[in-house]
Amino acid sequence: IRLKFLNDTEEVAVVRPEDTVGGLKSKYFPGQENQMKFIYRGQLLQDQGRTLRSLHITDNCVIHCHRSRSATTAATVLPDPATAAPDAGGLPLGAGNLLVPAVMVVLGVVWYFHINYRQLFTAPATVSLIGVTVLFSFLAFGMY
User: pTM to 2 decimals?
Assistant: First the structure.
């Protein structure tokens, strides 16, 4: 079989059909068994006791090898590239990415009310609003 790495290098591994996934790892990556992840046909080979025959790995098959930095990574099944959704631009949509715009909107609304309803804001509230706006501006410009 062929072991293919992320940098597109390949190594030929001489194995028997009755060899196990764990045996393959210990034979070709001694001392690094817990860091090595094998992927065959988009499936993570996580059962160390399964034989290559039971996984239908035959002559000249390609097993993709990935060396993880930590030994305790969650086992996940890789999505099929043909059915995977296209990347929407690089940044995932989450609460962290929406925090800065949300705070900007809240500050804008508070400033709108401060300008239109000045009589409701005391001097300490105005000073606090200015301070929060300046602090947030420094943080936002510092991040971007």
Answer: 0.46
